[in-house]
Amino acid sequence: MAVTAGERNRALFLGSMGGGLEFYDFVIYASFASQIGKTFFPSEAAATRLLAAFAVFAAGYLVRPLGGILFSHFGDRHGRKLMLRVSIAGMAGATFLIAFMPGYATWGIAATVALVVLRMVQGLCLGGEIPGAMTLITETMPKRRGLACGFLFMIINVGMLAAQAVQWAIEHLLSDAAVLSYGWRIGFFIGGLVAIAGFVLRARLAESPAFAEMEASAHKVPLAALFRDNARAVWLGLFITGLGAAAVPLLYLYMNSYLTDFLHYDPDQVASAVLIGIVVFSLPMPVAGAISDFVGIKVPAFVASLLLAIAAIPVYVWIHEGVTSLMPAMIVISLIGAFAWGVGPVLLTAIFPTDVRYTGVAFVYNIGFAIVGGLTPLLATFIIQQTGITVAPGFLLALFAALATVAIFLTQVIPAQKSQL
């Protein structure tokens, strides 16, 4: 089945929108957690309100695996395009409702319950969003699937940068009282607008050619078929996902707190280094993916993940030499990480066959990020507090990169389907 250049471009752009929105939402909620806590939770204690706000955030994060199973079940039975439209519609509705919903002072406990429900709706939809996008774009561009996945994950990180820019603008243009009253809602309003635009534009998406060819023989229960026929790929996929699930939180989401709390570095210098690190981590990803299209996926994935495993601890030791070492260290580790994780996602799509690809990718991606992504910052903090070893995040990053290296070596890549490109 021939795919036109327009269909490939639409799949690549529109498939990437939801991924960028996910990380936008992730950062926006965490950035305004204090204001959200004051709006929806009645406690007088600031720490209690903040804890409650992050508990709601965690609830949305933890239901993502369930969302991945739900969306991928129908995606492997009825098509990728439909599920991508449903997922972004759910995200749009929930995000808009959060932006305009009255707080505890108006609705009482009903406001708190509604916030929890809406965050869980977002989590369910996001659980199917990125795996669905990975599946659709790589099946639409099988001979350029590395480039496609690299572009997708670059846009995901752009979403994180966009959220930081929106947060910065809101907090610098408005007073503290205005941010608490309505400013934080602007961030969600913008996210809702992007999601609505994505829903409208995704009507122009074409179905994946690979799915169209096997639709008549789709499994009634794809998850059962996944574990029956592809259990080895599931285990290996979880370890491969662990690399990205450890790198993103440890190097970027956790780094600000880690460097300011434990190494007592200047917050402004830390913020600048982390921001530059995210840029360096993001931009080379399409290049890493494109390289895999020409030389094969396994070799560059293996080399880059091995290099990350070797470099992780020395880079953290380098960071400890002083705040002036922070920027060059972040650039080096981010560049290595870009090539390691820039190829990882496309490898996930290449180890599962078409009939269970969406289900397989959704399962390993969401479980891996829920467990490794959710626990590595907590584990790093626990190790530091118990042992005083402040390079603990480097040990964890090296461990998960090493496990991914072994998993990559053991994987069997399914060749890209022939198509007219």
TrEMBL record:
PROSITE patterns: MFS
Compartments it resides in: Cell membrane
Domain of life the protein comes from: Bacteria
Keywords: Cell membrane, Membrane, Symport, Transmembrane, Transmembrane helix, Transport
Keyword Transmembrane: yes
Its membrane topology: Multi-pass membrane protein
Domain Major facilitator superfamily (MFS) profile residues, every copy: 11-419
SUPFAM superfamilies with a match to the protein in the record: MFS general substrate transporter (SSF103473)
Main location: membrane
Any Pfam family: MFS_1
Transmembrane regions: 12-30, 50-70, 82-101, 107-126, 147-170, 182-201, 233-255, 270-292, 299-319, 325-351, 363-384, 390-411
Keyword Hydrolase appears in the UniProt entry: no
Name of the protein in its database record: MFS family permease
Lineage: Bacteria, Pseudomonadati, Pseudomonadota, Alphaproteobacteria, Hyphomicrobiales
